[in-house]
Amino acid sequence: MAENTPQNLDNHARYDPFYHFFALPVVFLSVIAAVVHLVQRPSWFSGWLVLFVLAMVVVTVRARTNALRVQDRLIRLEERERLTALLVEPLRSRVGQLTEAQLIGLRFASDAEIPTLVEETLIKRLAKRDIKKQIKNWRADYFRV
């Protein structure tokens, strides 16, 4: 997505072309090729090849999930600081009650929407997707992994 394109609920998901459209397909096709090779030419090497390719699947997927986990931790920290600056008591003291998923959903809300949205999130225990649906003025995040 171009950085000047306004983000919203429908278009905020981001793809990394090298990961999603090259690395993942190649790794998954390699699993299929290795299994076919094992069936057609059973040997210890063919079995090892299947095992190795499965290990590559794990490495590829874990590399992405670990990056996303670090990103989520940073978002959690940033949003707690942002909410502490934007909210007044008694909401400010309740920031710690928000879950990581709720904080991640709130990151897209504009500063003006935050107090009302945080209060509603705490009362109704809104899920990340529900929070995103409530946002009227989307605060874009172009730096996601």
Low-confidence runs: none
The number of helices is: 5
Rg over CA atoms = 21 Å
Q: What does the largest sheet look like?
A: none
Question: Which geometry do the CA atoms define?
Answer: elongated
Amino- and carboxy-terminal Cα gap: 13 Å
Structural class of the helices, strands and pairings?
mainly alpha
Percent in helix: 55-70%
How many domains? The number is 2
Mean pLDDT: 90
Amount of beta strand: under 5%
The quaternary structure here is single chain
* E-strand count: 0
Write up what this structure looks like.
This protein has 145 residues and is mainly α. It has 2 domains: 15-75; 87-140, no CATH class. Helix content is 63%, strand content 0%. The chain is built from 5 helices and no strands. It has helices at 17-40, 44-86, 100-106, 114-124, 128-134. The longest helix is centred in the middle third of the chain and has 43 residues, at 44-86. The two termini are 13 Å apart. The model has no long low-confidence stretch (mean pLDDT 90).
SSE inventory with pairings:
Layout: H1 17-40, H2 44-86, H3 100-106, H4 114-124, H5 128-134
Which key terms come to mind for this protein?
2 domains; 0% strand; 145 residues; elongated; 5 helices; mainly alpha
